[in-house]
Amino acid sequence: MVLTRVSRVKLPPDVKGHSILDYLSGRFTYLTRDGWEQAIHEGRVTLDGETATLDSVLAWNQILEYLPPDRPEPDVNTDVKLVYECDDYIVLNKPPSLPCHPAGGFFLHTLWALLKEGLVKGVPPMEQIHFISRIDRETSGLVLLARTPQFHTRACKMIHQEGTMKQYLAIVHGSFPDELEADGWLYHDPNCPVEKRRAFSLEKPDVKAENAHTSFRCLRRNDDLSLVEATLHTGRYHQIRATLCGLGYPLLGDKMYGLDETIYLRFAKQCMTDEDRRKLRIDRQALHAWRLHFDGHLFEAPLPVDLQVVG
Q1: 15-65 residue pLDDT tens
Q2: Which one-letter DSSP state was computed for residue 4?
Q3: 36 secondary structure, DSSP code
Q4: What CATH code would you report for 81-158?
Q5: CATH of region 7-66, choose from 3.20.20.80, 3.20.20.70, 3.10.290.10, 3.30.565.10
Q6: Rounded to the nearest 5°, which phi and psi values hold at 40?
Q7: Most exposed residue of 22, 107, 127, 247, measured as fewest CB within 10 angstroms of its CB?
């Protein structure tokens, strides 16, 4: 299967009558206005399958597509393991340094693309890929995918029902308590220099916030690090990482929620320092999707070698 990198969006009602250049340069800022103008001239932008021009005016429900030029992608770890499969879903053990789906500078170097092209051992090429659970690029461990849209709809309900449980292993800075129940709130911190970073508080803040509930249990301690089991009761964006940081036990190797949040800004600009790497201590965030209770089964992915740093 030959995969073509393409960005596709269905236009909302409020774009009706807008010029295509105004919309693209305002909505998708990874290209400048001049960059979008050049892309249109090169025929890389279409509306409902027809090549767009600078005179194109947008309409509600049109399909806008952008075909970016070929470019090299960062190297990734493709050592994906099949854990379980049936007619409805598959469970995979994803290595670190592999995005689940296309985003940013990653397209062909993603789990999605590997599955499409039949490059995961034991899994034939998949025409339809529906993530039920996914994890960050740097996080390793279990990923759950539906084989059909019908089961995906059903599974998204099952994942929140009694009998389904997701557990992670995390290595954190500090001597973690034997047990800790963190039932609090996640919210955007406007004072943080990292836009995507969230804050955690046990008390509800006076801003828009989401309830986040995680049970923690310390499994081992070694010098200044602890190996912690995290059981999710809610499924929020960056829940474990933000919660641990807010509790005072930041995740080892985490560029955004670790000892120094500004490391992420330098990482994004590809200008990390030797001091940054010294603080991180390992190449990726020490988070691993360990256990998944789903559909009457218990699936496990052992802690990978690179995270076996707490004896």
Answers
A1: 999 999 999 988 887 788 999 999 999 999 999 999 999 999 999 999 999
A2: -
A3: H
A4: 3.30.2350.10
A5: 3.10.290.10
A6: -65, -45
A7: 127
